Amino acid sequence: MSQQLQAYIEKRLGQTPENLEVVLAAFKPIKTKKNQVLLEVGEVCKHCYFILNGCLKVSSYNVNGDESTINLAFEEEWRTAMNSFVNQQPSNERIVAVEQSELLAISRQKFQEFSQQISGFQQIYQQLLEESYTKSVERVQTLMAMDALDRLKWLLSEQPLIFTRLSSRLIASYLGISEATLSRLKPKL
Description:
Elements: H1 2-13, H2 20-25, E1 28-32, E2 36-39, E3 47-53, E4 56-61, E5 67-73, E6 78-79, H3 82-87, E7 94-97, E8 101-107, H4 108-117, H5 119-145, H6 148-158, H7 162-165, H8 168-175, H9 179-185
Antiparallel strand pairs: 1-8, 2-7, 3-6, 3-8, 4-5, 4-7
Helix pairs in contact: 4-5, 8-9
């Protein structure tokens, strides 16, 4: 399992960093069941996950208890509840494995330790933060600037496999539209 993470790190850095074996040994393999909750709203996020296979969903809830899907992550992506992980505050987000998944988890303590002590890991951390920010901004801009059909086209061009792996209900939640609207728009693609 750690070979996949090693290849990811080497690809990102363009080399094999020093102390890579120490870093890889700090990751704990986790196999999840479909719909297994990894973090509940109100808990403090203590782990960051690298997805070997499967899919993680990050969601939040409004005052009426309605769920909104904030993010979906697939193979060779990282996911955590960033604000809770960084600031060690109760999370406003929930993380769920929407598919049976294989993950590698690193604790916040080890993550911070490696970020400070291992230069290559600091570079990976910076890339993760930048990607997280960029994807969040892109998603907000997409939801604000596009109508429902354009959002659907955007998602199809950015992540076409979502349509073969996830339910229409989850896709609609991610796009900020109803499932009925999604069904009505699919033939227009």
